[in-house]
Amino acid sequence: MSTVPPLDTVPPPDTEPPFTPVSPAAERDDIELGQLVRRLRPFALWIGLATVAATAGVYLSSRAQPRVYEAATSLMSVSGGRDSAAEFSVRAPPVTPGAVEEVLHSTELVEDIIRRLPGTSLPVPEIQALAADLRAEVKAQRFGLLRLRSRVDQQQRGVYEILARAGSPQTAKTLAGLGARSLLAWDSKRARQRYTRARQTLEAQLGATGRDPAGRAARSQVIQNIWELRLLESSAAGTLTLVSQPVTPTTPLAPRPSRDAALAGLLALLGSSGAALLLHRFQRRVRGAADLEALRLRVLGELPLPGQGPVASSRTGAFLGALGYLRLQLMPLLARAPQATVVVCAPTEAQGAGASAVVAALAAHLGASGLRVLVIDAQGGRSRQRHLWPLHIAAWHPLPGAGVDLAYGVATTLSQACLNPQVAQVARVSSHVDVLPADEPAQGQAVRGQAVRGQAVRGEPIQNQPAPSPLHQVNFPELLERWGSAYDVVLVDAPPLLSVPDALAAASGTAGLLLVADVTRARVPELEQALGLAVTTSIPVLGCVLTRPGRPAPNAGRARPSGYPSEQANIELSAITALKTDPGPKATAHDRHPSWSGRS
């Protein structure tokens, strides 16, 4: 009978905590074939070029080399029989393969081959060149013109094959035949030498035999043996027998351009692939979701950033589908979080533009689906949201908890909104999207009661100095919670995580961090370090968005009106239409962006 666990041991489904990485130094799985292909895919062009270059280079180099022909002749080794002509005579044993090879490369045999060359039909210059090459090989003890291949058994019975190489077919055939004849002559001389030495010994004994009757009988026996040895000496044969004459070769042994090129191409393919894997291991670039599996970092989407701007492209094409997948994976994580605020940041400064583009595109997509979205630009001097939204035509309205006070002016940037939250206002850039921009890079001077280039400052004229980030102010979490109460989703465009600690400061108490990694720049160690900082500060990481550069728009290079940022010109008409549909709270004289207050 099954037992139902107590209710207090089962966590409710709506209290599941967001994803938090366990450790940046997680173990890595074995490399599978698919993962190997994915790792090599970015290097496919270089691997292909290296393979083609090696194949073509070896092919052309091989064709330029002189041709080499090889001819072969065969000798058979037989075991000797017992010599019954004289009881003291014993046949010579068969020759071992090592001995035959030493003889073939000996000075005596090479000189014998050279002496036989004038009797052939080869031209005199070729004879002289071949003789010089043979003597050079003997001197260097490196043999390539004449080689021996043996196939014999334990009784030294079998076949010896003499291989001769030369620059022409006729020379190769002639050299193989001369090598076989010289080796047979040496074998026959070796067989006769035994009987010659025995005969010479008996002839010496014959002179020392006495003339007495006993000596005459011994002398007669010695003379008889001498005649028998002379007969054996004249008829002696070695253990080697010619089996086949050399044949003129028709095809060269070398070079073989096709074979050499194929082998070179294969080696180049394997070598370049190995070098690419080593480079990938040392660089550890992030090129896809598979590279983040070891970090246990959830990839929520892959966005091909369009060339015409993320806001205008968020409503059409493949970019719209990619944003849809991102929304479907992100919204359940926000529903389980105590506050639907996401801090979006990149690991490094080089990828900061991608994070701002993701914030703008995601805000436009969520707004188009009916959600109320607040975009907070916390990039400071790196601000890019000003170039992605039509702030110059937007209506401004107060944030929750703020109002309109003519004595205080308006606070229309993040830093001023944190200092003066009672007059903080945001720009309504579309029917459901509001933007609180960052300070402009160049501020100039400010005078009491007067808004200059998007800020209102009280007090005497001052010269703007670099100020601390408003994200580190004590009241920022409270303001973020207050401002977010009127919106479904709050997206904070934060500075790079590894450059400044602003993203970690802003993410405290929010749903968590959303990392943005550019597949053309991001590296795994950077994400490991970012995850380590998140684990250390107990900041949850919702996941990662991978961005890829898209194709530029066809009119990306056309001139635009002065003062129009690149993205504003694309979406101005749609933004005006959206504002007419839902203009938001009624605007006052101070609701317009201060930088446009003097325009008609």
Automatic annotation (TrEMBL):
Name of the protein in question: Chromosome partitioning protein
The lineage's top-level taxon is: Bacteria
What the entry lists under Gene3D superfamilies is as follows: P-loop containing nucleotide triphosphate hydrolases
Q: Which parts of the sequence are annotated with region: Disordered? A: 1-27, 578-600
Q: Where is the composition biased (Pro residues)?
A: 8-21
